Amino acid sequence: MPFSAQPPASGERYALSASLDNARHLSSLLRAVHFQDYATCLATASGLRVTVEDAKCIQANAFIQAEIFQEFSVQEESVMFRISLSVLLDCLTIFGTSSLPGTSTALRMCYHGYGHPLMLFLEEGGVVTVCKINTQEPDELLDFDFCSTKVVNKIILQSEGLREAFAELDMTSEVLQITMSPDKPYFRLSTFGNAGSAHLDYPRDSDLMEAFYCNQTQTNRYKISLLKPSTKALALSCKVSIRTDAQGFLSLQYMIRNEDGQICFVEYYCCPDENITEAEL
Amino acid sequence: MRFRAKIVDVACLNHFSRIINTIAKLAKTCILRLTVCKLYFILSDKVANGGASMWCELSQGNFFDEFQMEGVAAEHNEIYLEFVPENLSRALKTAQSAKAVKIKLTNKHCPCLRVAVELPSLSSSSRIVTHDIPVGVIPRRMWNDFKEPRVPDFDVSIYLPVLKTMKSVVERMKNLSNFIVIEANLSGEMNLKIETDLVSVTTHFKDLGNPPWASEDGCQSSAQGRDLESMAEACIDIKKLQQLLAGQQVNPTKALCNIVRKRIVHFILLHEEVSLQYFIPAIA
């Protein structure tokens, strides 16, 4: 193998260096947040967080813990860079996306630090691909200031219950309205499209409802075009937690089990749509 | 000028359809050359085709149960027709469960290839679906434009990697760049490379093997005095390469390419009954 194709020895001092036996553990999670071209990567000792934002109102984060990797080392306290997520995904899936049993792409990732490209070494069946992706200065990320103490309403649902609903959302509606309440209708998804309004209710004693902690009746609307991409994360996940705070900020947390049964998380944060007044609700 | 042919065997029909599908992916318009023994699909390297050219050859006996052809003249017993392969591909799509397919050259209002697909039916009379595919008859004085291209004086000849892997890699690279560099050496190594302002990706294949070519004096071309490690490279339009690979629906028996450094890449794909050559010129 030519010298340039060899991944660097582990002794070299890289700001970030990681190995993964099955690149799909990373690529499938990144696809769940791929609704914009660019993403911000943050690597710390706990693992990798990839953040995508849009319109200053929605943020998606994919978390891949250090334990998922066969090797994961970050030299400084944290390493952060902005990168084209589209290009990163094309590189991670260079050998194709179909998962034949027994075949997987092995990945090695190296990043020298600020100003350097992200290097990927991918191998499948004896064929090696080397990628060098330019990185940029990371943007400042939104801080939704969403912590568990501020949560007003929370439910945990099995994802299969929501999948069809999200896949079939009436996209002619500008908003998705979410009602959470200790009383009926408990949990309701509503849209107001060209053909009329649609309401989908989930009773609190439904089999799909794993946890129901609603203290206050809240109805909030979110721009549907911003939430629609979360359908990808929902499709991969087994469970989803839906939480709102006093301002109506929405947190969707998806629990995703990968091919090896390991758990990873993807979360979406969304601001409520400000254009409607209380009177309209 | 007369031409009529018939395919009855289902396997031959499917194979023939697959070949037409492959041709349709490579050329919007091409030449069909009919001789007593063979069919040729030809795309010449005019600028309008983006410089790529194609030569596909198959023995009619391997596909047709009946084949009758009378050329323009006794001493030039051939027919050259210009046609749109996608039209033929679509006609053959309706023939997947056909009892028979008949192809005939007709000239009712204008020259056409009439494809009559006989479909099974519950009643005693068959259902026949007929497609008329317009063709242009190429006059004899232009036949020289469509001669078989010579194998170029290549720097490196190498077997292609597993096409499925090559196809995945090229498809992804096509998202990243318009051009791809293909380079190989006489030690069985091939690299596919793309490079833009944003990203560079190189895929390394090894142990591919280099086909032996007999040189003009009958001896096997010797590698003596030729640097085995040195790469011959050509930068080509990635879309053309992707079309070639996407059109391969069945794994060829033999697949190789000849690289003339910075000039042209010549692909040869051999299946049992058909050979396909595709030439992609290098970007200056």
Features:
heterodimer, A: 281 residues, mainly beta, Proliferating Cell Nuclear Antigen, 2 domains, 9-stranded antiparallel β-sheet, 13% helix, 44% strand, disordered C terminus, B: 284 residues, alpha+beta, 5-stranded antiparallel β-sheet, 4 helices
User: Uncertain spans of chain B, ≥5 residues at pLDDT below 50?
Assistant: 216-224
Form type of chain B: elongated
CATH class of the largest domain in chain A: Alpha Beta
CATH topology of the largest domain in chain B: Proliferating Cell Nuclear Antigen
Could you tell me the radius of gyration of chain B in angstroms?
Answer: 21 Å
Order of helices and strands of chain A: EHEEEEEHEEEEHEEEEEHHEEE
Oligomeric state, counting identical vs distinct chains? heterodimer
Based on DSSP secondary structure assignment, what is the total number of beta strands of chain B?
18
Helix/strand-derived category of chain B reads alpha+beta
The number of helical elements of chain B comes to 4
Report mean pLDDT of chain B, rounded to a whole number: 90
Question: Please, could you describe this protein's structure?
Answer:
The complex is a heterodimer of chains A (281) and B (284). Chain A is mainly beta and 281 residues long. Helices cover 13% and strands 44% of the residues of chain A. The radius of gyration of chain A is 21 Å and the shape is elongated. By secondary structure, chain B is α+β, with helices and mostly antiparallel strands. Chain B contains 4 helices and 18 strands. In chain B, strand 16 and strand 17 (264-270) form a beta hairpin. Mean pLDDT of chain B is 90; it is low at 216-224. Classes of the chains: A mainly beta (281), B alpha+beta (284). The A-B interface holds A 1-2, 4-5, 84, 86-87, 90-91, 93-96, 124-134 and B 161-162, 164-165, 168-169, 172-173, 175-176, 197-207.
